[in-house]
């Protein structure tokens, strides 16, 4: 539609006046030039019910509460230091995954499913301190919640017609999901409180999880007249983190962000090709993947390095990966975790390059179309990571032709947390295994059809055959 109607389209979706932005120029107008004007979110039924009256970081209205919550997320929950503290969890869960894949060498496996399970385990341990006993129910709940949160159901298109909420059963389904998630989250939070009260947990050994951090803030600021964090707010924040990571793992990355990555997000045909290029051993236990004489990324081989792997080496390798992450960058360009960025709302009448935008207009930025704009990308539909070898473009929101995580004040705050769960598994998949398509399929036969919702994912799970390439050491 953008190719036919231009980079700024107006759509009347039921009762909701909506504009769709599909070019870097207009995206910059919305997310930089008039960032404050478009910093708030429209009211969405799913967010109001599932997120405790829209009090999570993603859908909270722009204002003091959102600013304080974002400060907590960026300085405490999702800081570089906090993300690094979860490295042992990632290594342990990925070690289990890689060992399992190795045991299935030569057989067809559902890589999508296994990656999803592993991502959920990492997220659960980071958020709750351990795997949730109701994890399967919780995962199913969050999956359904994400599907219902796109903002395009009939209840959101005709918000004044309350009868439609009942006829479509949207509100009923949302309230059922909310009650189930609230019960699970309540049990987990109460367990944390009891552990702290009875000192059953050795705080000197166990790293703080996300709930620990939020509960501490809740207690320290309970009497703060300007800003306090209620138990419901804590539940909203944790649920949002889970939704982000689960969405990303199904994108494999994804998205979403929230974090969910590896082979699922990019052309598996290209993955099979690059696997044959191999990885070279460099100094110590740092591995580099080379293409056309250039390192695409590097990673510490956590399996051969064992317990002697130093924190310094891990930190160095992770920082280098951020610089050399062409594979992930290209994946994000073609398969943005959230193809239509979370909607914004015009807070006051303004003009975008001469076009007047009324107050309360819903604004959708089409990151999917922007990432495939032939005006900015040569052979835009081709998966070609090498295009980023000599490019300074990154996903931090300063290059508006490339905004997989958004930009401006409402840019995704969980980029660091999400990427930490992306590049390590991807590097390990490519280092330890070669990959083949099953049933004699050719690369061009692979169905890359996408299923769209609030997040984008492959319509079909990725089925591949792992072939031992650099086998795991025998313990």
Automatic annotation (TrEMBL):
SUPFAM superfamilies: Cytochrome P450
Keywords tagged on the record: Heme, Iron, Membrane, Metal-binding, Monooxygenase, Oxidoreductase, Transmembrane, Transmembrane helix
Cofactors named for this entry: heme
Coiled-coil regions listed: none
Subcellular location per the Swiss-Prot or TrEMBL entry: Membrane
Entry GO MF terms: heme binding; iron ion binding; monooxygenase activity; oxidoreductase activity, acting on paired donors, with incorporation or reduction of molecular oxygen
Residues the record lists as binding heme: 412
Family the UniProt entry places it in: Belongs to the cytochrome P450 family.
Protein name: Cytochrome P450
Organism: Fagus sylvatica
